[in-house]
What does this fold into?
Amino acid sequence: MLPAMIFAADADALARIQRRCAGASFIKLFQVSAERPSINDMLRLIRAYHPELVLIEFQDREDALTTEAALRAELPKLGILGFADSWQYEPILRTVRGHLRVVSASVAFEEFQECVLDAMEVVQSGLPDNMTVFLPSKAGSGASTVALNVAGAIADSCGKSAVLIEADLHSGPASMYVKVNSQHSVLDALQESGWLDSYWSELSVQGSNVAVLPATKTPANSSHLPSPWEYRRLTSVARSRFDHVIFDLPEVVNPATEAVVLKARTVFIVCTPEVPSLALARRRRSTIISLGLPEERLKIVLNRCTKNGPELSAVEEIIGRKIDETIPNDYQAVWSANLRQQLVDPKTPPGRAFTAFAVRLTGAPTTSRPRKFFGIFGSAASL
It folds into this structure.
């Protein structure tokens, strides 16, 4: 949930903004005021209740810029969204720290939610561009195996800290592939994402280079569907604490996980050399580009390649673009790793491919480290 406060000068405008907050299921109102306090009193209330977002009714452009500057000088991580009944100025005001948006108190509900997310984006800017997404063209393409082993290779062979976040709330397999002794899941983190800044050090294993936030071990509760805000909050916390953040997503991008896809440095669609998988990779590529992801940030991984398989040119013709990464097929190596709940042996053909993939992704030279796998919420298991 996103904790918020409202400071209004008009009771009618306050009621309308409250209704819009109620319509956004991810907003939790701590305090509202029908009389707008002074800037000093605002600061006092904000420090008492610790909201991450304040919604303030502004009278004019000067009022908006003065109030924003004073609040951000004291609380630079505070999201601010302005509203007004009659606003005669530009809706987006340029400020020293970015911009300030002012909306009508009668703004449409969907537009209001987008403006809230935009207000939070302002204070989250400047994070490292270190997030990578893997998703399958179709279920069973091996995207989870690729994502997990690339994350492991980043830590074990490239000397970088990495976290794998399983965002498939219904069937994430990481806790089956490796020994992750976690009692918590990504759903827990999403529901409590507003407090991750304060408690991350208690949730992760200090001194580790690899972490995993596994999907829930039981089917996700349909009564709570994660919001775009919860995913954005989780990604901002993870990006600030790890060198590389790897997301394992299901094949269908929903409105919440769209927030992850559009913030990723690179999105990899994982497919296999079968016609249905390749045709769906083309479809997934088209869908993701239509969401607004620049085409150059979308890449293709061909998994389970064999010497006797189709020519790469034929595969690329079906997909409609070149293949960026290939992972050789070795069922025995993957089977053996899964059976022992370990990462794929780096000396096997797919293991070497995962290491080479990680090196290209990070730009780091290979190093040799003891292989341990850590759960963010749990203990380490030697591999």
Summary: The longest strand covers residues 298-305. Confidence is low (pLDDT under 50) at residues 202-208.
